[in-house]
């Protein structure tokens, strides 16, 4: 297919405004329509694809829906909905192979703002997300652009691949206003002594820097994979969950999550007593890691996480969109409820517990829920 045109339009209530420049930069307050017209090299037929992209903080109501439907009819097609941070590869490709998403309104965004952007590659495309300026959002696996006063820092995590580093530097230069300097820092090489960078970003001992990220620079892992486990479903006791996010993880279910370098058995807050499901999930995850061991530099570890729980920092960074608060039902607990597989199996095999271990119903032993605890 040969591209004829790509149009990006902002939709606010019943009005449409064409985006004239930086069409591959979206803002989380926007509703955008992207129209791609292409011609087949073989048949000469023209096809039209229309996406409706919605930012996490956009206003999307009846007027916007009606206007987008009207646009789709005008182009003789239907609108394909796209949520922020779930952009399909085809959409990224028609926008030049790179999409950046910024926080706040387009009209008010300025390169002079203090900002932090993470640059990652996926399926040979580049995805750039503005995140809150916080040390917890820094990870050894990726490249970052951090704008502070008259400086823009480009920080290369040790696991960041060449394409991400190039894209980060180009993005930083594109943001840089006149008089702004671009400073390149490489993790473990020349970043330790830059006091200004760490003073703004945070404690250099507190970011996600598991040793395994170093392997990413030579082998970019695939996107995390997820399976739901349900022994009661005899036809498909283990089924694929195609999109992994806090919204798709069901609290009544047990999930297996493959983050490539480590595996997690994630137990929903209403699934902690489902011993057969948890046991099958642990055994399956262990079998998966053994099968994958020959293609990895080390045997991936399997952890068991029980909701409510904080998420391991490096696990969060394996995903582009895994919201800790949403996963925990709107709040982030003050603890991490994590077990090794050995500890988890021991919990499941134990039939009696000391009263002291049953006081906190959010931290009950695995295999029990509040219905198993007799109230005094």
Automatic annotation (TrEMBL):
SUPFAM superfamilies: Actin depolymerizing proteins (SSF55753). InterPro entries: ADF-H/Gelsolin-like_dom_sf (IPR029006), Villin/Gelsolin (IPR007122). Coiled coil: none annotated. It comes from the Eukaryota. Keywords: Repeat. One of its GO terms (molecular function) is actin filament binding. The keyword tRNA processing does not apply. This is Gelsolin-like domain-containing protein. The lineage of its organism: Eukaryota, Fungi, Dikarya, Basidiomycota, Agaricomycotina.
